[in-house]
Structure formats: C-alpha cells, structure tokens
Amino acid sequence: MLSDTDGGVQARAETPEPASAGEPPVLEAVDVTMHFTVRGGLGRATTVKALEHASLQLRRGRIVALVGESGSGKTTLARLFALVYTPTSGEIRLRGERVLPGRGRASREYYSEVQMVFQDPFASLNSMHSVRHNLKRALRIHGRAGRDDIEERMLELLERVSLTPTKDFMGKLPHELSGGQRQRVAIARALAVGPKVILGDEPISMLDVSMRLDILNLLARLREEEDLALLYITHDIASARYLAEEIHVMYAGQMVEGGPTEQIIQNPQHPYTRLLLGASPDPARTVKAGAASVFADVEDSGEPPNLAAPPQGCRFHPRCPLATDECRTSFPARTEHATGQWVHCWLYPPGAST
Ligand code: SF4
User: Fold this and answer.
1) Whose CA is closest to 306, among 322, 318, 297?
2) HEC string of 248-306?
3) What is the structure's pLDDT at 330?
4) Rounded mean pLDDT, 195-200
5) Structure confidence at residue 6 (pLDDT)
6) What are the DSSP calls for 64-96, one per residue?
7) Nearest-angstrom CA–CA distance, 5 and 32
8) Which three-class secondary structure state does DSSP give residue 18?
C-alpha cells in the first residue's frame, strides 16, 4: 500500500497490477474535442479550443492521473466525463455505450455509477446543512437506503472515510469541520450512491499540506476496497506518481504523453513532461541521462497559449527549445512503445524505442 514520506508525496510503494488491466474500460473518452463559443464585447463570437482529440480509458480497480497546468484541458475532460458538456466531436462511453447529458432517470442512473469529487469541498457541500443532511440526500435520491436503515447507512459511510467517532460528525455543519474532514464528507457522499467510477478534480489542492497525504491514502484504500475506477486530476506530477498506476500528461488542450507511471517518471519523453518533472525534484527518481536535463539550463518563462488562438501544430512549440519547422505546422501522430508508453512529439517518430 502507500507509504508516508517526509512531508511531500514523492514515492509510492509498488502496487500489484490490478486484475482489470486487460479488461474493457468502465468509462472512456473516445477522440473527444471540446470547443466553446464565447461572446465578447460587441457580441463578437470567439471559439475557445479547450480540448482536441483526447482519448482516455478508466478501468475498475485502477487509478489514472491526468496531469497538466491550468488551461491544459484536464478539467474540461473531467467535465465531459461528468456529462456537464456535450463534446463538439467524439464520444463518452459507459461500458461501451455512448452517453450524452440528459435529465431525469437516465441522468440519475449515470450519476449512480459516476461521481465527482471537487477541488473545494466547502463549495461542493451544502453549507447550510449538516453532514447528516448532505449524506441523507444522496442516499435518498439514488434509492440507496430506506427509512429504517438510512441512519445505519450514513454511519457506515462515515466509517468508510475514517470520520470517527461517526456519531460526533453527523450533526456538524461544513464550517465546523477542517478542510480534510470536509473532503472526507464529500467523498462519503460520492460513495453513498455506490459508484463504479470517481472523478477527482484536484481533490487535495485546496487542503493543508499536512492533510493531503491522508486524502491520497484514503482514495487509494477506497479504490482497493470498492474496486473503483478512479480518475485523479492534478497539476502536481509528484502526487500523480504517488497515487496512480498510469499518468497522462496534457498541454493546452492536447494529450501529449502517457503510460505506466514509473515509465513516465523514469523515462519522460515529451519536453513538457520533462519540464513538469524538472519543477518537481525528486531524489528517488533516476531519470535516464539527458532526459530531464533538456530544461536544466532553460529558464521556462513561457506561458500556456491563449486557446482562442492556439499555436498551430504542437501547441508547446513556443516554449520548446527543441522545436523545428515541422513542430510549428503539424501536430505529431501518436508514437506507441512496447512498454505501454506513448507520446505525441516529432522527436519520437513511429518506431522509436524507449
Ligand atoms: Fe517540442 Fe516539437 Fe516535440 Fe512539440 S513536437 S514537444 S515542439 S520537439
């Protein structure tokens, strides 16, 4: 299982490959693109190209991390999975069946399988009501408890997220809890519906550093106990390494690299992945010679591009010291390696080995 570290989230004990590794995904994004039309001054419409041709598969018992800075498209992809948006093109599939945003019973059925845990637990809970109310509502809406056993179900949920003694927490209002306790309540509420998938959108980024590791460990334990498929969205590649079996890296709406976690950490290929790792030093990492040093003497003063007018080709090219003319005109195809790692970068043409 997971081990504690010296205050950071650097390394992760080896976790056996889940039995589901070769199974069909529970939830998947298939080549999804999301463009938003935004009306500016004088009513002029602008298209924001937030996400381009992204594919991602979530399997039971497996944690997948989606890593990137603000504006990378990772939250847009999570919201597509949560059916907040309808993709401009491509599909979201639950057990192989296409799903679209809806209302009523179809929507309830979807959310009884797919739940989201948000960055700010205070905003995600009803602040006017107690923990009891927040949990009871979720159980009732999804028919997960009757009048006779609802109290027992709520106490069980608090036990599962280690809020004990459980009875002490039932009557508390969100503002009477610490940030970590509030996030535990939000996770308990997500579990109330018996989900198969949890989408965690930066679930630790607003918590005190001292509580972050506890929440990561809780998510890891629940994944094992509940056999959950878990999407962990973060800007912090170190916490992704700690928690996830797979890491997928996004930049400016494009998926740029992905694969088994240790493969990505030890042998990052895309210059943006190297930049992320360079900003997150880890003495335990033994990156292959030259791999992380690409950016060692490059001051990264670049900013992510404006997605209303993104750069052509590889969107990272204005910040990339290795960019060529080819990079500025066309986005590279995906190169797959036998290790399971893949990358979109002209430095690694199809057939390149890791
Ligand atoms: Fe850099 Fe070109 Fe690779 Fe993009 S495709 S990361 S610009 S080398």
Assistant:
1) 318
2) EEEECCEEEEEEEHHHHHHCCCCHHHHHHHHCCCCCCCCCCCCCHHHHCCCCCCCCCCC
3) 95
4) 97
5) 38
6) EEEE--TTSSHHHHHHHHTTSS--SEEEEEETT
7) 37
8) coil
Compute, in angstroms, the gap from residue 37 CA to the centroid of ligand 1: 28
Q: Show the ligand 1 pocket: residues with CB < 6 angstroms.
A: 270-271, 314, 316-317, 320, 322-323, 327, 332, 345-347
Q: In the predicted model, what is the mean pLDDT of residues 123-150?
A: 90
* Ligand 1 atom with minimal separation from the 328 CA: 7
Average pLDDT estimate for 91-100:
95
Closest among 25, 186, 191 to 99, alpha carbons compared: 25
Reading the block at residue 178, the tokens are 């610490």
User: Does 170 or 15 have the greater pLDDT score?
Assistant: 170
Where along the chain do its domains lie? 4-247, 250-344
CATH topology (fold) of 4-247: Rossmann fold (3.40.50)
- Cα separations in angstroms, 343 against 85, 235, 242: 27, 19, 21
Q: What average pLDDT does this structure show over 292-303?
A: 57
Query: How much of the chain exceeds pLDDT 90, in percent?
Result: 71
Q: What tokens does 15 get?
A: 């976790």
Residues 6+ apart with CB under 8 A from 114: 27, 81, 82, 83, 94, 195, 196, 197, 199
